[in-house]
């Protein structure tokens, strides 16, 4: 039986939409393709047929580079004319992405690949989630560590019970809460089995040293504490710099995750001659672009009706967690319960 070839369009034709692979070839060639145009061109199940951008020069460059004749300044016109099956949303500001995502979800597409964060408020992203559920739209939001075999190794270690019952995860170097911090919230959720958050308390880090017109001034880093409904605790540190790391603590040991899970240390108390046994764990190896793995997941979901590993509901949860830190700060660093009651609280980011 012949497989469907899905017609693909991209909204936003700059870096991630079109040319990001040029940079990656110089630094991390394994991650090629990661641009949305590159992925749709490489995937045998998709055909890149249209693109949209407000900038005429970007439209012309995209059309010439990718051999796409249908380029638009208005995404609504593209959706109306091109009979698209799958659409990528790769615009700059999250508020714009959220508005576009609602239109795309209602347009009749089967799939949507939307860059993170997907929206700026609980109210906005809840509308998107509802539309996608009601209209059976498969969604990938690329919190790409979920596709990384190295982090899968860590999750499997936790699931095996080697550190006993997981009690807490501590993350260091949490950057801007929406732009980057949602990545950290998501991987903590993934490693702990996606529990529901119960409450949190947090603070925003000082932004006085950041230029007033910088996007990171309105989307600062933050620190805080979460309790989940299954009893797992998260702590995260937005005050220290450097690459992110994670410490998973259980009733019988700990797992230290460094260097994007290239280095995994297992500390165990059970059977240790001197109280603690330390073992270096070899992670599973990555064999392809993580962004492309997300596209394969999306195509599979469009084929089968199954959910994806990075779906809209998970994206909504990570956004709500980031916004809860802002709400705690607004309330004088008070406890904030989930679900977040201030659904209109909105923080935009690049």
3D structure, described in words:
The mean pLDDT is 95. By secondary structure, the protein is an alpha/beta fold. The relative contact order is 0.16. The protein has helices at residues 15-27, 36-42, 56-66, 75-81, 94-105, 122-134, 149-160, 177-191, 215-218, 290-304, 312-330, and strands at residues 6-11, 46-52, 70-72, 86-89, 111-114, 138-140, 166-172, 197-204, 222-228, 233-237, 245-250, 253-258, 263-268, 277-281, 336-337. The N and C termini lie far apart (43 Å). The chain contains 11 helices and 15 strands. β5, α6 and β6 (138-140) form a beta-alpha-beta unit. It has a 9-stranded mixed β-sheet, with helices on one face. The chain has a 6-stranded parallel β-sheet with strand order 3-2-1-4-5-6, with helices on both faces. α5 (94-105) runs parallel beside α6 (122-134), α6 (122-134) packs antiparallel against α11 (312-330) and α8 (177-191) crosses α11. The chain is globular and about 70 Å long. The protein folds into 2 domains: 6-144 and 291-310, Rossmann fold (3-Layer(aba) Sandwich); 148-286 and 320-330, Dihydrodipicolinate Reductase, domain 2, CATH 3.30.360.
């Amino acid at each position: 039986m012949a497989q469907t070839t899905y017609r693909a369009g991209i909204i936003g034709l700059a870096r991630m939409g079109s040319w990001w692979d040029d940079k990656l070839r110089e630094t991390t060639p394994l991650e090629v393709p990661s641009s949305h145009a590159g992925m749709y061109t490489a995937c045998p199940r998709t055909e890149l047929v249209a693109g949209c951008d407000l900038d005429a020069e970007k439209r012309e460059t995209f059309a010439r580079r990718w051999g796409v004749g249908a380029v638009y300044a208005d995404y609504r016109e593209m959706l109306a004319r091109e009979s698209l099956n799958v659409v990528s949303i790769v615009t700059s500001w999250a508020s714009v992405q959220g508005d576009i995502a609602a239109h795309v979800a209602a347009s009749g597409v089967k799939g949507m690949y939307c860059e993170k964060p997907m929206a700026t408020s609980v109210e906005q992203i809840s509308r998107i989630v509802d539309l996608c559920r009601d209209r059976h739209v498969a969604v990938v939001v690329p919190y790409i560590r979920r596709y990384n075999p190295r982090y899968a190794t860590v999750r499997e270690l936790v699931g095996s019970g080697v550190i006993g019952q997981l009690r807490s995860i501590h993350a260091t170097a949490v950057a801007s809460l929406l732009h980057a911090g949602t990545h950290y919230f998501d991987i903590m959720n993934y490693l702990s089995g996606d529990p529901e958050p119960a409450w949190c308390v947090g603070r925003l880090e000082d932004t006085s040293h950041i230029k007033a017109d910088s996007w990171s001034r309105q989307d600062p880093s933050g620190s805080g504490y979460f309790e989940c409904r299954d009893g797992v605790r998260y702590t995260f540190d937005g005050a220290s710099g450097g690459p992110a790391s994670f410490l998973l603590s259980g009733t019988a040991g700990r797992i230290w995750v460094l260097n994007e899970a290239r280095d995994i240390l297992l500390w165990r108390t059970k059977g240790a001659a001197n109280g603690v046994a330390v073992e270096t764990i070899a992670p599973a190896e990555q064999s392809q672009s993580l962004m492309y793995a997300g596209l394969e997941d999306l195509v599979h979901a469009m084929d089968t009706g199954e959910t994806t590993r990075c779906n809209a509901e998970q994206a909504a949860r990570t956004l709500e967690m980031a916004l809860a830190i802002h709400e705690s700060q607004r309330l004088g660093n008070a406890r904030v319960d989930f679900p977040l009651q201030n659904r209109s609280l909105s923080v935009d980011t690049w």
